[in-house]
């Protein structure tokens, strides 16, 4: 018996989840940081039927020597992909440990406009002291302090997205007015370490609010649309999902799959000669495609979606496209995104009302 349909997300940063994944990539290392590379991977994910791609980011390089290092900013890549895709949700990882939330909210609202409502935001974290030095900011030390920064960053971003009402842009030629200033609002936010007056400099996103994803332990559940949950087995994932209290939950799953030329175990062993695939606390599947389908079928009853972290993108994506996603869709365990729909629609989330908009009077109130 099939469970509820899953929404499928995939992390596409770099060449894969393994730090040495570049050694098995189908391209030369110098192509990693090219527009064609990121566009090709996103196109493969969109054609496969994924609902959402995420793009990891941070102030520091993603790996150390002798592995390939460096990445283009996630927001910049996301904006590029928004114009190169049509149905795929796009969610950059953006930490607000040191970044200015006013600028982050503006970037994400702009991304939602560019993508016509397909933007998401994975709230990231910057725990390394080197990140503070890179930003030229005092160190935010400890989980509690970084949690406060994340909570304030998401809270003020959500307020700024509402600081323009949906009909604030009037474009009235007759009165030479572009905006109705009465429909722009000061947010007057006061957090633990900064204040923001507002309003935003970008009109309200098409989705009303960009879809916010993050770890429930790092961001208050009330500020999240989707909680990303870990667990080394399905029971642990189910328990973590039950505790979130968020509208949607996605399980984090690392995957290494059998390919026509090598088993998953052989491919992992080949990469382990160069660097370890360190356990992260996430569910991990190493084996055939059928085993992954069975695992996701088990998760379908306890989470709303999964975010896959492929061992090597160039090797896992073809197997996911040919053997995993079609099987899930045929068994009604997963759904493909539809054209002309927002990411919120794909995730079954309502478009939220604007907190600052005046209540619409009822028919009785209008006659008084």
DSSP strand content? 15-25%
Secondary-structure-derived class: alpha/beta
How far the N terminus sits from the C terminus, by CA atoms, comes to: 56 Å
> What is the element string, with H for helices and E for strands?
EHEHEHEHHEEEEEEHEHEHEHHH
Stretches with pLDDT under 50, minimum 5 residues? 360-368
Helical content (DSSP H or I, runs of 4+): 25-40%
Strand order of the largest sheet: 1-2-3-4-9-10-11-13
Give the CA-based shape.
Answer: globular
Number of helices: 11
Write down the Rg: 21 Å
What structural keywords apply?
two-stranded antiparallel sheet, 33% helix, globular, disordered C terminus, single chain
Care to give the gist of this entry?
The chain is of the alpha/beta class. The chain is built from 11 helices and 13 strands. The chain is globular.
Compile the SSE list and pairings.
Elements: E1 7-11, H1 35-48, E2 52-55, H2 74-82, E3 89-95, H3 101-114, E4 120-124, H4 129-135, H5 143-161, E5 169-172, E6 177-179, E7 189-190, E8 195-196, E9 211-214, E10 226-229, H6 234-244, E11 248-257, H7 264-272, E12 283-287, H8 289-299, E13 305-310, H9 313-330, H10 343-347, H11 363-367
What does this protein structure show overall?
There is one protein chain. The chain is an alpha/beta fold. Helices cover 33% and strands 17% of the residues. It has 11 helices and 13 strands. It has an 8-stranded parallel β-barrel, surrounded by 7 helices. A two-stranded antiparallel ribbon has the order 5-6. It has a two-stranded antiparallel ribbon with strand order 7-8. The longest helix has 19 residues. The N and C termini lie far apart (56 Å). The C terminus is likely disordered.
């Amino acid at each position: 018996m099939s469970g509820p349909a899953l929404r499928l997300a995939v992390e596409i940063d770099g060449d894969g989840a393994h730090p040495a994944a570049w050694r098995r990539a189908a391209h030369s290392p110098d192509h990693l940081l090219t527009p064609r590379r990121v566009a090709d991977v996103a196109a493969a994910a969109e054609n496969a039927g994924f609902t959402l791609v995420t793009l990891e980011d941070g102030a520091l390089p993603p790996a150390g020597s002798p592995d390939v290092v460096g990445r283009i900013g996630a927001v910049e890549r996301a904006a590029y992909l928004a114009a190169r895709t049509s149905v795929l949700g796009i969610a950059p990882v953006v930490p607000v440990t040191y970044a200015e939330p006013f600028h982050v909210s503006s970037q994400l609202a702009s991304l939602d406009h560019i993508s016509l409502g397909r933007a998401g935001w994975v709230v990231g974290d910057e725990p390394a002291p080197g990140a503070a030095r890179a930003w030229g900011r005092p160190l935010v030390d400890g989980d509690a302090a970084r949690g406060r920064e994340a909570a304030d960053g998401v809270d003020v971003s959500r307020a700024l997205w509402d600081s323009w009402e949906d009909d604030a842009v009037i474009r009235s030629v007759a009165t030479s007015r572009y905006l109705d200033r009465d429909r722009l609002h000061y947010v007057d936010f006061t957090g633990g370490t900064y204040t923001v007056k507002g309003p935003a400099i970008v009109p309200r996103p098409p989705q009303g609010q960009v879809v916010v994803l993050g770890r429930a332990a790092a961001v208050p559940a009330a500020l999240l649309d989707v909680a990303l949950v870990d667990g080394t087995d399905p029971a642990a994932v189910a328990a973590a999902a039950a505790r979130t209290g968020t509208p949607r939950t996605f399980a984090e799953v690392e995957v290494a799959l059998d390919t026509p030329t090598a088993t998953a175990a052989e491919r992992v062993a080949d990469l382990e000669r160069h660097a370890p695939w360190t356990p992260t606390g996430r569910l991990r599947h190493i084996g055939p495609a059928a085993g992954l389908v069975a695992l996701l079928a088990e998760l379908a009853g306890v989470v709303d979606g999964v975010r896959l972290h492929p061992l090597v993108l160039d090797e896992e994506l073809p197997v996911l496209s040919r053997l995993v996603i079609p099987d899930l869709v045929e068994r009604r365990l997963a759904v493909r995104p539809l054209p002309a729909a927002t990411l919120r629609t794909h995730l079954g989330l309502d478009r939220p009302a604007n907190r600052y908009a005046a209540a619409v009077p009822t028919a009785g109130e209008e006659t008084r």
